[in-house]
Amino acid sequence: MTMSNTPMAASPLTRAVLEIDEYASGLGWDQPARLFALVDTARLRTQEPSLAAQLGLDEETGATGFTPIEQDEVPADKALDEFLATIAWPDAVVGCALTVERLMLPSSVDTQVPQGLSDAELAKWVAARPERQEVRMTVAVLRDGNRESAIRLREKDSATEVLTGPDLVPGLAEALAATFAD
Q1: Residues 6 or more apart from 11 whose CB is under 8 A from it?
Q2: Can you tell me the mean pLDDT for 37-64?
Q3: How much of the chain, in percent, has pLDDT values that exceed 70?
């Protein structure tokens, strides 16, 4: 992955999230969830120079920040929260990120959501709504508690239309942070 369209003024975590978003965008829509370990780029260069070279990190440019390393496929047959609850990271991993696609409804529909639906029934109800929006969410957390998110709407699929912020997807950020709990 390269940081070709990420703003250099952004924090290292924001740049990593945007790098992952750009990578996911290049794969197209209707993709499975993808999990990434975040490692300190400078430490990776020092401790694993051959891996750093293989990842194209052997140049001095971009010496600070985080390098996302995609992990094995996220199982599609298991609920995302259940899968995340099984993860433990080695000490070399300073953070993690997840990119996932979902359907979203505007808040104006909140009062119309039927109560008592199962997850499958709710997903079917949301999919049938004409005001639904397809989104790709990329959420990253660090061991120290820092968080960042990026949201891209399918209908506005452009790098200049990606919304970023630390609290855009708090539930997913909490689930990712829990992967670092002792």
Answers
A1: 148
A2: 77
A3: 91
